[in-house]
Amino acid sequence: xxxxxxxxxxxxxxxxxxxxxxxxxxxxxxxxxxxxxxxxxxxxxxxxxxxxxxxxxxxxxxxxxxxxx
Length: 69
Description:
- This protein is mostly beta strands.
- It has one helix at residues 2-11, and strands spanning 14-20, 26-36, 40-45, 50-55, 59-64.
- The chain starts with a helix and ends in a 5-residue tail after the last strand.
- The protein contains one helix and five strands.
- It has a single domain (2-64), classed as SH3 type barrels (Roll), CATH 2.30.30.100.
- It has a five-stranded antiparallel beta sheet with strand order 4-3-2-1-5.
- Helices cover 14% and strands 52% of the residues.
- A hairpin with a 5-residue loop joins β1 and β2 (26-36).
């Protein structure tokens, strides 16, 4: 996951992630990473149209958005 986060920050690349909230809800989100550390990811969330914080431990899957069809 570290390499994907680094690349996303440098290239300002959108990522698609599956996230489990603290309440146990699963969501699929497209985000653009702003900053991150060992615990948190700060990102623009296209689903909520707002900056959000995500716990890294709750990210179940993450990959670059395919922009080529």
